[in-house]
What does this fold into?
Amino acid sequence: MKTRTPWLAALVCSTSLVLALPTPAGAQLTVYDPTNYASNVMQAARALEQINNQVRGLQNQALSLTNQARNLAQLPYSSLQTVQGNLGRISGLMQQAQRVAYDVQAIQREFGKNYTVDAGSRDADLIASANARWLNSAAAFQHALQVQAGVVAGLPSARTELSNLVGASQGAAGILQATQAGNQLLALQSQQLTDLTAMMAAQGRAAALEQAERAASRAQAQEQFRRFLDRRQGYQAHPVEMYR
It folds into this structure.
């Protein structure tokens, strides 16, 4: 025990000296404040949340711009040229109507000349009118057949366009493409309705001219029969000598 006493005494002395040394004037002791630490953590969390919100906002704006670009994209397929070609072909056929064409004044002149039987007309004029009426009916039936042939000739292209437009509408990437596909389908339907209207007009023209020809022919037959009776009443018998 005697050998340890000087060592312990020395340790106690040195420790006392260290504790007795003066603390530097610039030195500060770090003190942990739980309240301040929690406030700093909350502020950092709020800042991080704001940054995340800004990032999500930018992502939403980018998605919105992408959707707008998709909605404004043009439809890559167009049937305008085919529809215009079919309409032009049918319009050209309708303009090829001969003799009694689709004109109100021309029809009135023709009916006043060849479809009205005048009691004072010569026999030669009646025959000429009957021949003109027959030529009008024949030309109208020929034109109706031509229009029907033109409509039938356009059916394959219309069928192809319908299939392409349906496929384009189903694969539309945005609102504009879907709208354009729908508009082109309506244009194709309108073209088909125009074809049907032209065909019905040609057929109706031929039927109307045929009925008008029949009516005028009956009126002319009655007039010719009346003239025959008038001539018979004015006929006087003359003696005829027969030679042997």
In short: The longest helix spans residues 175-233.
